[in-house]
TrEMBL record:
SUPFAM superfamilies: Calcium ATPase, transmembrane domain M. InterPro entries: ATPase_P-typ_cation-transptr_C, ATPase_P-typ_TM_dom_sf. Residues 1-173 form the Cation-transporting P-type ATPase C-terminal domain. Keywords: Membrane, Transmembrane, Transmembrane helix. The lineage of its organism: unclassified sequences, metagenomes, ecological metagenomes. Signal peptide: none annotated. This is Cation-transporting P-type ATPase C-terminal domain-containing protein. It comes from marine sediment metagenome. The chain crosses the membrane at residues 32-58, 78-100, 120-139, 151-170.
Length: 187
């Protein structure tokens, strides 16, 4: 969050009408609440999708031998692996959602790509590296996570996580359209 303070100022900031006192909280309350609710819905939907469709499908496809064993013998160590895999995907989804959400916070109206911030890029890269450290080292035991060893796991994660950022960018687009604003790309 501190790195957001290093984001360049919007060149059109003087075009905005002056604020009436400190109005930051009402301005960010709506988007943060919307994205908090949407992230929760995404996590619940991802959980249901994992248990209802993806994990049984991955087990049948044989992409992960431990998952295949989980569906043949319930109550064994393999079954607990399936539970840990689901928890790991949900946990990592929350982390990636937050890492992407910070980019959408650069402006309440304009798209995130108009505000380049190399410090924010490095901070999110470091946070992602720490998440990978948790997933792929013995530190994972403390967090009760399992390594995400297949591309299908990561693909599922990124689709779910990016959907949250897409929803926020659509919210910003609606605001711009309502106000009649046009955004020109920087050259």
């Amino acid at each position: 969050a501190m790195v957001l303070g290093l984001t360049p100022t919007d060149p059109d900031v003087m075009q905005e009408k002056p604020r009436k006192g400190f109005t930051l909280l009402p301005e960010i309350k709506g988007p943060v609440l919307l994205l908090g609710i949407y992230t929760s819905i995404t996590d619940i939907a991802l959980y249901l999708l994992l248990w209802g469709v993806l994990i049984p499908g991955w087990a049948q496809a044989g992409i992960d031998p431990q998952l295949t064993m989980a569906y043949s013998t319930i109550g064994t160590e393999a079954y607990y692996y399936a539970i840990s895999l689901t928890q790991t995907i949900i946990f990592t989804n929350l982390v990636i959602c937050e890492l992407l959400f910070v980019y959408t916070c650069t402006s309440n109206i304009k798209p995130f790509y108009l505000f380049p911030n190399k410090h924010l890029f490095w901070a999110t890269g470091l946070s992602l590296a720490l998440q990978l450290l948790i997933l792929y080292t013995p530190m994972g035991l403390a967090f009760r996570v399992v390594p995400l060893t297949h591309v299908y796991y990561w693909l599922t994660l990124f689709i779910a996580a990016f959907s949250v950022s897409v929803v926020d960018e659509l919210r910003k687009w609606r605001i711009r359209k309502k106000r009649g604003m046009r955004i020109l790309r920087k050259s």
